[in-house]
Amino acid sequence: MTSLAERLDRQLPTTTALVEVENLRVSFGDTEVVRGISFTARPGECLAIVGESGSGKSVTARTLVGLTGSNASVTADRLDLGGADLRHASERAWRRLRGRQVGFVLQDALVSLDQLRRVGDEVAEPLRLHGWGTRRSRPAKAIELLDAVGVPEPEVRARQRPYELSGGLRQRALIASAIALDPPLLIADEPTTALDVTVQAQVLDLLAAAKERGTSIILISHDLSVVARLADEVAVMREGEIVEYGAASQVLQEPRHEYTRMLLDAIPSEHTRGTRLTGSTARVRRPVDEGVPVLQARNLTKVFRGPDKVDRTVVDDVSFELFGGETLGIVGESGSGKTTLARMALAILRAEAGEVLLRGEPWTALTPGQRRPLRKQIGVVYQDPLSSFDPRWSVGRILTDALSTAAHPPSSQTEARQRAVRLLEQVGLGEHHLSAAPLRLSGGQRQRVAIARALAPEPSVIVCDEPASALDVSIQAQVLDLLTDLQDDLGVSYLFISHDLGVIHHMSDRILVMKDGRVVEHGSADDVFERPRHPYTRRLLTAVPRLRPA
Amino acid sequence: MSALTLPSTTRVRLPSAGTVLALVVVVLVLVAAIAPGLLIDRSPTAIDLKATLQPPSWQHPFGTDDAGRDLLTRVIYGARQSLGIGLGATGLAFLIAIALGFTAALIGGVVDAVITRVLEVAFAFPALLLALLVIAVRGPSLATEIIAVGIGSAPGYARMVRGQVLAVRQAGFVEAAAALGHPRFAVIRRHLFPNAMRPLVAVVTLGVGQSIVWASGLSFLGLGVPPPSSEWGALLDAGRLHITSSWWLEILPGLVIVLVALSVTALGRTLQNRLGGASR
After folding, report:
1. What is the CATH number of domain A1-101+184-265?
2. pLDDT for A10 beyond 80
3. How far is residue A39's CA from residue A36's CA, in Å, rounded to a whole number?
4. Nearest residue on chain B to A346, judged by CA atoms?
């Protein structure tokens, strides 16, 4: 058997398919997580494996580099890479393969890169392992690679350590080390999930360039719109099986399987505005109350002093109004100050200048003691619900505790219980969840409990800070639907924060676009998305991966 | 969405043989401390001048001392004082630690800086030296020994408490409770205190074992409970004179101290691992 490298060296014809997998099964103990899937990947093309958490997509990617771990049992009728049978490859054979023939890019570059080593050494590592060049020549090659993936000032960056680099630069360095030996196959497992949308666009362009050069790419992602940008073929996985497999245009435009259709429908975007994401029925909106704004911010400014003793203005002169029954979306990339703005609106963080009015009355200007009885009017839902629950408390205790802060707190234990159950039913859970510990609930259920807690004191405003960003797209759709349903029923207003332009467009009546602590654009959702005035907004909008060409 | 709650399958981890042995030892010591009469029907002070300095035998498993008193009986009756000192000293240490740790972490600023610096200075002294200082001021007695060991070990715990409070104060659920409009004190009492103290439960157990050893050390130096007490350290002190001729007076009580301290520590570690696993 000849190795792929030898075949390439001797200009032997490679088979049209670089990777051929038939009937792949992976199990951990008694649980089969990959259940007999088959796929092929060709040079110069991108195969995307798409699925929600637990679908087995990452495990599939790992079998192709022999990294499933010792407690996994892998069987396949065929597991070929460049004509070499990998079904019984030894650990040594895998090691020869990794880096040289398969490059592997993981989601979180901060974890995948050694914090204590310089970026240049890290990029040069596969070169050293596979005996490329000499001690002298490798650093130059590392700089060349960093330059090739678009890292500015590669000589400087190569001497820095991973934690000194931004997320986007780290991800690019990781890609540089994966393509160092120009492997014919590149596997990217959620390569852009942790990145801002403009950085994501750059990373996707980088992968597209590798594809142009003839690299075969297997892209693992939960995000169908990211996939649309790069993939030639798409395999949709669910519970260890491929439910739909075909050309990207067909799968994304004319899906045949109902699961694929459901996934596509669940993606919030400009097309889903005014409808529910599950079931696609139209919303029945209450009219927005244009009287006194329920929440009004005037010239809010927040300055943080960094460890280098330099003051940085995180929120700079931001004003907004939020009316009854309305959703005000705040969108921006990481570090734009949107969460800081939310914390000031909640009066958890004190503003350096400016003030917030709640229903036209002073709010941030009050003392904490004066503010406390008014807190029931403003609720909050965080991105990570689990950390916002006391780990010792059951769902029932969390809700009865929140009910005790209402304007009319329950007068007896029985009443508290009844009202807690009613809250759970409002958010689509039931009485049997009362005794559950949040730790044992699923991500979507936890966020429902968090929403129920926010509703308990019957607030007129709820601040939602990335409430669905950590959830799978189908669960995100349910949570967003729940929020819009509650707004249509109760007339509650949302200050809705997200980095996801699709989610913001779907949810918001009006939008603030933030960059570096400033509001760069402010207007109705239609104005901001259809007629963006600020160049940054335009840049954001072009960077958004789209399922269909706009 | 499936409205199913995941079944609460708390994985039952069987304790190891070492843990079981440690548990047996600790239970025996507790019985000895509460009702020594259940374990042995002799008196710890019964003098038998015909049988002085007898080596271990069936009749006297631990041998006898220079007054013919049965050593095993004295060890069993000494458990109450030794364990009492261990528990008392650790309890006192934690009270001091909680007071200082919470004050420093919650008030912050200058108060925090002063408390932290004082703790660092105290921490720089060996705990035994701090204990000696207390005894030098008050003179040896049971109460002094508890206070001495308690004060000696407090600085280390205080630093731990402060760190825990600072960490838990940043937790999302503390902010969530404040955002609901609960008063600051209620948030401290209901969320901050229990969650900050949770990981320290195991440290308390570890502390008891250590306090027993320190108390024995002080008694051995003649700074602990005065005779005729049969506190374990005092037994060691008494046996010192006969160590060349009657080894059992020194070795056997010493082994008991080691075994008890080891068992309490082992239990503490097990507890620590389990609690650590449960808190996510």
Report:
1. 3.40.50.300
2. no
3. 10
4. B179
